[in-house]
Amino acid sequence: MLEALLGAGGTVAIAAAAGLGGVGKTALARQYVGRYRADYPAGMWWLEPGDRVGGLVIEAEILGWGAPPETLTTDQQRAQWVYQQWLERFPEGSRLLVWDDGEKFNEIRPFLPSDPRFQVLLTTRSKWGQPVRRLDVDTLPPSDAFRLLRTLMGDDERLRREVPQAKALCQWLGYLPLALELVGRYLAVRPGVTLAKTLERLEQQRLAARSLSNVPEEMEYQYTVQAAFELSWQTLAAPEQALLGALSLFGLAPIPGDLIQSALPGWDEEDLEDGLAALVGRSLVSLPSASGVTYALHALVREFGRGKLETELAEQGDPLRRGVAAALVAVAKTVPQTVTLQVLEQLQGAVPHLEVVAQELTDWIVEDEVITPMTRLAWLAQGQNRWSEAERWKSQCLHLTETRFGPTHPDTASSLNNLAGLYRAMGRYEEALPLYGRSLAIWEQELGANHPATATSLNNLAELYSSMGRYEEALSLYQRSLVIWEQELGANHPATATSLSGLALLYSSMGRYEEALPLYQRSLAIDKEVYGENHPEIATDLNGLALLYQSMGRYEEALPLYGRSLAIREQELGANHPATATSLNNLAGLYSSMGRYEEALPLFRRSLAIREQELGANHPYTASSLNNLAGLYRSMGRYEAALPLSQRSLAIYEQALGANHPATATSLNNLALLYQSMGRYEEALPLYGRSLAIREQELGANHPSTATCLNNLAGLYKSMGRYEEALPLYGRSLAIWEQELGANHPDTATSLNNLAGLYES
Question: What is the pTM of this model?
C-alpha cells in the first residue's frame, strides 16, 4: 500500500489510526527505505526530529555541496537551496525525503521540496487530509502480535506452556508493537519469569511496570510506552487533556457520543465536539464505526489517561468521576427486569461501561443509587441465563452495601432480597430462605413492622414458601403483607392488588378455589381503576383469573379472559413480546385441556417462536414452551414429534438451571410420561426416579409436586404389572395430597381414582 501511494507521486503521510506513538510508523518507514532503496537512484534523505534544516545544511557541507549563500536568511530558503543542490548533482531518477515524526502539516509544508522529482514520506501522529495521501497504521492483529512475541523471545518453552496467558498478555498490551517489543525483550532475558507473573505485574503496576518502563539499548525506538504517549499529551490543550481523562474512566469499549455529553454536563456541545475532534486528529481516540457516533481508546492510552487522573488531573478527577458515574447510572436505570433480545441488542454495548461503574466508581455514585449498576447488570446476566454472573453481581452488591452502609441498612436489606430472589429463580430455595429472613428482619427493625418495604419482604418470603410447598407458612405471610399494604397504602393501591393476586395464586395451589376467586376479582378491579382497561397489568390479572377458572374446570369462563389478556398484550407490548408468548401459551394450554388440539397447536408454536426469537433458544421459558408443545403432541398421539422437543427442553433446563432444579424435575417427569405412552417403560423408569429424587431433595417429601411424581411412578409400575411396588407409592401420593391440598382437591380425587384402579387390577 505504501509503495502504491508513493508511486503515485506527491506527498504521503503515515498516521496511526489507534492514535499511538509506538504503533510502528517509523519502523514501517525504515522497512520501506530498506526494501525499496534501489527504486531511488538519486538517493534518500532521512530527517530526524530536532533541528532538521540545520541537519540538512551540515550534511550538505559534509557531502561537499558547500554552504547556502548568506543572502538566504530563513530556514525555508536554506532547505530549498539544499534540495536544489540535490537536483543539480543527481538530476536523473527518483529521490526520497523522509520526514520522521511531523507535527502540523501546515508548518512542515514550507520546508518540503516542491519539485515533482521528489517523493516525500512523512510519519506523524496526526490524521492529515489532502493534499497528503495517508496510510493509517493500526495495531497488530492478535495472531501477528503473538508471532512478534515469539520472535522476540525465541524458541521459548513458556510460549508453548502458557498459550492462554500469552494471548491474554498480548490483549492487555492492546497488540501495540512498542509494548510487545518491550515486554518480549523483558521476558527474553528473564527465563524464570512466567507469562502469568508478567501479566499479574502489569495488572498491578500498569504502565509503571518494569517490563514497559525499561528500554533496552539495542532497541531502535528509545521510548517507553509512557514517554511515547507523553509526546502526544504535551500537544493537547488543557480541556482536551481533561477530556482524555474523562474518556479513560469508561470501559474498554466504544463510547457513544451522547453518553460522553451526559458525563460532561458542564461542557458546551461544540466545545466537546472540538475536543473530541482534537483527540481523534492526534490519534489518541479512534472512530470505530463509520458513522462516527462512538469513540474508542486503545487499552494502553486508557491506562495512560487514568494515570493522569492521579497526577496532573488530580484536582479534576473527582468531578469527572462523578459525572461519568451519574451518566452510567442513568443508563443502568433503563435496564428492565425482563430482558428481551431487543433490550440486549440495545444495551450490550453499554455493559463494559456499566461494569466499570459497578466495580470502580461506586464511591462517586449518589447514595440512593449505589446499588443500581450491580442490580441491573445482574438482570442483564440473568436474562441471558448467565446465572453465575448474576449471582456474582448480586453477591458483590450485598458486600458493597454491608461494607458501606452496615449490615442493617435498608439498602443491605434490598441486596439480601435481590440475591434471595435470584436463588429462588434458580431453585436454590434453602439458600434463599435465610436471606429473605434477614431482609425481613432489617426492614422490620429499621423501617417498622408495618412499613410497605416490610410488606414487600413478607410477600417475597411468602412466594418462596409457596414454591417450597410450605403453604401454611406462606399463607400467614401473604395475609400479613396484605394487611400492611391495605393499611399503609390503601385498599385500592396497586401494591394491595399485587398482594391479593399472590394470595389468590396460593389459594389456587391449595385447591381453595372459592377463596381465590374473589381475591383475583378484587385485584383486577383495583388495577382497572388505577391503570384503565388495557394496561399490561390488567392482562396479568386476567391471565391469573383465567388460570383459576381453568383449574376449576370452568373452561368457558376462562376462554374469553385468556383472549382479552392476549389482545391487550399484543396491543400494548407487541405481537412478539415475551408476555404475549405467555398468553399464547396459556390459551393453548386451555384449548389442550378442552381437547381442541388443532386450535392449541398454532398457539403453542407461536409462543415457542417468540420465546426463541426474543429470549433465545436456550432460555428456560423456551424450554417451557418446548415442554408444553411436546405434551400436546403426546396427547395427540404424535410421539415421534414430541420426543425431540421433550429432550431439548430437558437439555435446556439442565444447562440453564442445573441438574437438580425443580423445573428440571418437571421436564424429566414429562419425558418419562412420553416414554411410558410409547411403551418404552425401561427408559421411563430412571427418569421418574431422578425426578422424584430432585423433588424430595429440593421441595421436600410432602410437597404436592413430589406427590405428582409418586403418582406417575406408581402408574408406570402398574403398567409394567409391578402392582406391589405401585401400591405404596399411590398410598404416599394420596396421603400428601389429602394433607397438603385437602380431601376435596381434584388432585386428591385423581389419586383416589388411581388407587381404586390399582385395586381392581
Answer: 0.78
